[in-house]
Amino acid sequence: MPIQNEHEIQQLVEVSQELERAANEAKNNADLQGIKQLQEQLREVQWKIQDARGKAINGSGTSSEPLTDAQLRVEDTQHQMERALTNLNALDDEVQP
Description:
Number of helices: 3
Helix content: over 70%
Keywords: Coiled coil
Oligomer: single chain
Largest sheet: none
Distance between the termini: 52 Å
Number of strands: 0
Low-confidence stretches: none
Structural class: mainly alpha
Shape: elongated
Number of domains: 1
């Protein structure tokens, strides 16, 4: 489904911001399950953003800049979640006998 208006782009931007906040909270709380769930949500949103960027670039007349910012935010958050997951797993390995 093509991106039809700025409202749809704004929704993707807002979702990326909400996921970033939730990811930071999960990371700060060392919530292993929450991190795993957020990783899946981040992947889904990243796909939607990439799809929307392609449609914006292909002539929908909308600016792709907010989508680019959202994609960078999602990618950075994904990297942070990977590091947090790695650190939590390493901590579990050290704690278990």
